[in-house]
Amino acid sequence: MFTTFFGLLRPSISMQLIDSNTGQPLDSKASIAPSITHTDIKKDGNGKMVMVRHKSQAGSIVSGGGDRDAAPKGNKNNNGKQNAKNNDTKAAETDGDGGKPWTAKDDARLKALKAENKTWAQIAEILGRSGKEEVSARFKELNKDEPAGDGGDKKGNAAPAAAEASGGGDFTADVDAKIKEMIDSSTPNKAIAEALGRNLDKALKAHIAQLRNEVKDASGGNTAPAAAEKKQDNTNKGSNGNDFTAADDAKIKELLDAGNNNFKEIAKALGKTMGKDFADHVKELKNQGGGGQDAAAAEKDNEGGKKANKKDKGGGRGGGDAEKKPDQPEKETGKSKEHKHPSKAGSAVSRRSTRSHRSEAKFTMREWMTLQEDEIFSFGELQLLTELINKEPGRSWLSVASAFHDKTGRRVHPEDIREKFDEMARMG
């Protein structure tokens, strides 16, 4: 709607009243009770502080009407959220899940399932309840009415409290006995929890620690006997999973006595795994008398025959020559003599000849007479050898033989030359 003001058109402004509680516009014809406007400071949806004005209804605390039936602060009305929550909680405590009450039969079944070491989750599923919180709360309520143990209510309910914390039920005498048995065998806490089908939580750890102390006190504060017993049980068990019975030891000794000193064959005969533990066990039986006089031989065989291989390869000094002596010809024997007598051509053999003929190439008449030819050397060859030796007195017999071959084309062993000239020196 537009109105004319000094010849100009301008829109007319209309105002409506809005209900602060509902946010809906109020009917202009509706009667409005007397009210007093007041303001509150609060945060809006964006977290900013804003001032909000409210219209107090008649009969409210602000209007001074003093309505005694008005809802208390914090409730929108007598059936507000707080009362609804309290009513729902009370109904849940009374009737259980979905209004299902706890009967005497349910209570008896709950106790029976608990005695069977069922978990709260399992019990809740069997009884058709909402969850473990409901059944655990009911179990606590039932235990309040029962007499406490010898140590009082606090002591008597200690185990159920620990069981509830662990989520796996209380610890019965059978469970404790099983835990102590695993403690004696040095079983770690994680393996104990897995064997019990429980979670290794704080409560279970505390209970295992308590039982460990009991086991320690029962053994006089020393857990060595249990460890020694376990070690004794595993004495004949190797790292490769080999465990040796009395029958196995008898079989091993029988094989050793029969001359079978191969550890691999013995392991195969027993169906065992050949490893360090098996070899150590067989050696131990040998030291006890198994295998008789063949024990040392077996030890040598299992070392791989290293010493024998070294001997075959000529590892020792003169070892190769010792094997060759019976089958080698005379010249080979001469070679070994060459190594044993590393003398030079101008040494003992030519002491007389070189001493008397350093300045001349020929012997005296007496020396020529001693240079008699034989089946190896002729007279001319002996004369040539003499000239070669006198030419270089310090040369070796091998060098003389090489020079002789260069002159004559005939190969002569250096030891044959040495022996011939040694004979000449002795005769001179």
TrEMBL record:
SMART domains: SANT (SM00717). Residues 58-104, 142-170, 215-245, 284-360 are annotated as: Disordered. Residues 73-86 have a biased composition (Low complexity). Residues 142-156, 297-336 have a biased composition (Basic and acidic residues). Residues 98-145, 240-288, 373-427 form the Myb-like domain. It comes from the Eukaryota. InterPro entries: SANT/Myb. This is Myb-like domain-containing protein. It comes from Passalora fulva. The lineage of its organism: Eukaryota, Fungi, Dikarya, Ascomycota, Pezizomycotina.
